[in-house]
Amino acid sequence: MDYLPLGLAEWGLRERPRNDHPALIRRLGLTRLEVGIGTHARALPADVERGRHEVETLRWESEKARVTTPAAALDTDFCVRDWQELRERLERAERALQVASLCGCTVARIFAGLMPVAEVDEEIWRRLLYALGALTERAAALGIRLGVETQPAFASTLQGRLHLHTVTTQPHALERLVRGTPAALGFTFDPANLRPLSALPLVEYCHLLAERIVHAHLKEWTVNPDGSCLPAAVGDIPFDWTAVFEACDYDGVWYIEYEPTADQVAGVRRTLQYLRLIGARPDDAWASGSDVSFAAGGRGR
After folding, report:
1. DSSP structural state of residue 196
2. Does a structural domain hold residue 174?
């Protein structure tokens, strides 16, 4: 039976010292870290010259903890109204990819754009598709596969964050993005980002993205009475995650992305406990304390 490999996404670690991340995730029984590059104040800088020493330090801490850094998270947005601004954003993204390469990453999460899809006109679409094609080529030259995240836009309410459709969540727009970009461009599948929008069952998104999924996040949102959401751990609310795992044409790493920072360790542990409850079982690597992956029932991971 195949297994569901797990890692830890960097966003929930954003308030912790970066060089403490490897030892922390090792204590949780995980050995794969998604590193942040230019995503927040404590992330690696998105510039090779400024970031080289910091990358070397992180790699040393990772080796000491027996942790790998196969994935990176980049902060990009190519839904812009000006070609010059687009070129500048592409240049920043390319510099961030060079840092990812220094980290030994083979996949990099990016955002297509955080503009609500209703505001994306044909000119913005043209610039977006050009940027994704160009960046895919540049990433491939570094041995990195890009994964465009299924990421909504957000509006704040008194109770939480309201999800708004973007080009990577609205089904017709996402289909256009899949059709209009090179097959080498992958996607980062984040099911929890899609469910509050209720546009399609998650299994339909799995079918839409199919073999283009190259990276995945595992998290949850609770829904407030006003329709807004608050981040949560997988298993905090009732949902059949087994059906999602079985529907995905993806056998790579699922990075746990518990977003609250105050109880990061407890939230990750709740996620791991839930995976056991739905019938996942630890493999020999988890038992030895050197890695963690879970075997899912039915169509194995």
Report:
1. G
2. yes
